[in-house]
Write the structure tokens for this entry.
Amino acid sequence: MRVARVLAYGWFFRMKMLMRSSFNSWLGVLYPLFFATVAFFMFKAGADSKPLLYSSLGAAVMGVWSNTATPAGSALAQERWHGTLELEVAAPVNFALILLPLTIAMSTIGIYSMAATLLWGWAVFGIPLQITDPVAFVLAVPATVASIGALGFVLAVAFVRFRQAWALGNMLEYPVWLISGFLVPLSLFPGWVRPISWLLAPTWGIRAIRGAALAGPSYGDIGMALGVGAAYVVLGLLLVQRALHAARAKGTLSLT
């Protein structure tokens, strides 16, 4: 219960901070409109509405990933610049319980991007919002958000040693868009790309959401998204312990 309370309060506190950030506000407002517009013009040929919904859903999850990748990459750098990293590491709870709610909050902000993308496509371009399995869809969205947030947790810890961590996070945006199959089907890529995509939570998240919307139940993909996300959390915990051990050995958390 103590761990759950720390995670809940941490998530709520981080959400309040992110929602007061002008950068995240503009990112959340403009990105969905851009993604939905690009998706429409890519798939508007033909009379079938399914390709439009297919692309609209991909653009929606792109918004979640964009709200996570770059901010998560520079999450610890931001704490270092603000002078709060040392205080958080010295807090009487595991540092991972402080960092994980931050990246989950980042991906949670992306839910607005999902909603805005789908509504923009429906209102402006007439993309239908027909969901085949509403229950599976409602389960797939939080599973996708949580798994992407867990991936952000790994990125935040993995990039802690780099001065330009934000650039590394930004660099990963477009490759993950492609490899996860947000707009381009994975069948169009070389065979060696698919095993890489299976290791990425956004791949299973978009498959679960599209399956629920277009094909019916997708509980297997939901389970895979949650399973991969759990693996990210375990990996992130190991990286946190390794980073803290290195910091104690050097006696500093600053970059040298």
Q: What stands out?
A: Residues 141 and 158 are 26 Å apart (CA to CA).
